[in-house]
């Protein structure tokens, strides 16, 4: 009569994966959207948003204002969103949900501020008053560029990254500790062995509060 050896059946690769395929895709999408959106906001906020002319000494000179002069809100919120994007991986459970919500709100707030700044003339009026020396000076021929709307588009990408984190964040891995693929606790650290024939090992065991004669 022959013997049948028990051969362990290999588990499917998908079952051993730390993050499901859908989780990996949503994670990559959130990282891409958030990083790209923050980059677009930070770069476009430094561009010229508004242009016009100011009357000085019977003539007129051109005046302009960049996004940071019009409103600093999109830049500030883009930095907050970028920090929240990476903080998502440092927290879990409720903390991850709260950080993901902060990420989404940062994108929404930056988009709203950019859209409102697209029609704001306050920054140009202040620049005209500074140049002319007349606090009542106003800008003529006011026009706005497309950069506020580019900023808003970048902010929408940050918003989408936050929505991805809210929807799929529970399946994403977290930083810290070991990769808990099987969900089992880490094996206890094995105590160092003591050689009773080596005096230095006996002293080290006594320093650790162990009985060097135990088990010998």
Plain-language structure description:
Helix content is 53%, strand content 10%. With 216 residues, the protein is mainly α. It has a three-stranded antiparallel sheet with strand order 2-1-3. The two termini are 45 Å apart.
Distance between the termini: 45 Å
Quaternary structure annotation: single chain
Number of strands: 3
Biggest sheet strand order reads 2-1-3
Key terms:
single chain, 216 residues, mainly alpha, three-stranded antiparallel β-sheet, 8 helices, 53% helix
Would you kindly provide a brief summary of this structure?
This protein has helices at 13-16, 21-44, 67-70, 73-87, 93-117, 122-132, 147-168, 199-207; strands spanning 48-56, 59-66, 140-144. The protein has 216 residues and is mainly alpha-helical. The protein has a 3-stranded antiparallel β-sheet.
Write the layout of secondary structure elements.
Elements: H1 13-16, H2 21-44, E1 48-56, E2 59-66, H3 67-70, H4 73-87, H5 93-117, H6 122-132, E3 140-144, H7 147-168, H8 199-207
Antiparallel strand pairs: 1-2, 1-3
Helix pairs in contact: 2-4, 2-7, 4-5, 4-7, 5-7
């Amino acid at each position: 009569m022959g013997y049948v050896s028990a051969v362990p059946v290999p588990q499917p690769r998908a079952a051993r994966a730390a993050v499901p395929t859908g989780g990996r895709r949503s994670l990559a999408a959130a990282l891409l959207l958030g990083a790209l959106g923050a980059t677009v906001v930070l770069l476009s906020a430094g561009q010229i948003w508004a242009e016009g002319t100011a009357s000085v000494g019977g003539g007129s000179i051109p005046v302009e204002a960049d996004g940071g002069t019009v409103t600093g809100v999109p830049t500030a919120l883009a930095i907050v969103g970028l920090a929240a994007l990476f903080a998502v991986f440092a927290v879990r459970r409720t903390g991850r949900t709260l950080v993901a919500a902060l990420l989404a709100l940062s994108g929404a707030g930056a988009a709203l501020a950019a859209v409102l700044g697209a029609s704001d003339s306050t920054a140009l009026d202040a620049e005209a008053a500074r140049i002319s020396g007349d606090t009542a000076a106003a800008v003529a021929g006011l026009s706005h560029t497309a950069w506020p709307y580019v900023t808003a588009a970048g902010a929408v990408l940050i918003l989408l990254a936050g929505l991805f984190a809210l929807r799929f964040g529970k399946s994403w891995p977290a930083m810290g500790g070991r990769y808990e693929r099987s969900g089992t606790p880490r094996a206890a650290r094995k105590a160092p062995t003591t050689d009773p024939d080596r005096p230095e090992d006996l002293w080290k065991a006594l320093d650790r509060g162990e009985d060097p004669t135990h088990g010998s």
